[in-house]
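Action item from last week, closing it out:
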Amino acid sequence: MKKKKRVIPGFGLSFGIVMAMLGLIVIIPLCSLVVFSLKLSFHDFIETVTAPRVLASYKVSILTALIASLINAVMGLLIAWVLVRYNFPGKRIMDGMIELPFALPTAVAGIALTHLTTQDGWVGKIFAKAGIQIAYTRIGITVALVFIGIPFVVRSVQPVLEKVEKEYEEAAAMFGASRARIFFEVIFPEIRPALISGFTMAFARSIGEYGSVVFIAGNTPYKTEIAPLMIMAKLQEFDYASATSIALVMLFIAFLILFVNALIQSYTSKIVSGIE
C-alpha cells in the first residue's frame, strides 16, 4: 500500500519544534525565577514571601480577582447568550468589541477607567452622590479586572453555546418543561465545562494583572496594594531575589488554579461520558 503523505512534518520533527518553542518561551523563563530565588536562603525566602505587607498584597490580588471572575462568569455567559441566540442591529460590532481588552494596552485601559471612576469622572460622579468611591479602592481594582477578564469567559462559552442543539430544548418544551428547567437541565450542563474554563482563565489572568490596575488602585499599603506592584517595587530597589521570590509564589498560585481547572474539567468530562 502506498504510504499516506502527511500535511505537516512527521512526529519527530514536529515534536522537536514544539519542545524547542516551549523551552525558549515557557520553561527557561520560569526556571530563571527558581534560580534567582535560590540566591536567598530558605529562611530569607519564607520571611520575604510572608512579610505582612506582601501577604496583604496577596489578599488584595486574590480577593479582587475572585470577585471580578465571578462577575465575569455571570456577565460573560449573558453576553455570549445574547450574541448567539439573538439578531439585532450592531451585533457584529458588539461581538468585535469583546476583543477590545485583548487589543488595548493595559496602561491605556487603566488610565481611562481611572478618569471615568474618580469623583470628578462621568461614572464616579454618579456613585459619589451615594457616598460610594470607586477609584483608588478595591472596587476600582475589581472594575479593572472585570474589564480585562470578560473576553476569556465570552470566548470560551460562545462557540460551545453555538453548537448546542436546539432540538433538545424544543423536545423539553413539548414535554412541558419551564424555561428555567430547560436552561439548567438541558443547556447549562453542555456549557458548564466551557464556563468553568473561562472563569479559571479570567481568574488566573486577573491575579497577575498590573497595567490596568496600578493606576486605579491607589496603591495604599495593606489596602489597595496588589502583589504585582510589590514585585515592581522590589525590582526598582534592585532586590531581584526578593522580586523573583514573590513572583514564584504568584506563579505557584496560577499553576494551582490551572491544575484545579484541569481536575474539574476531567471530572466533568467523565460525568458527561457516563451519561452518554
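Closing note: The longest helix spans residues 240-275.
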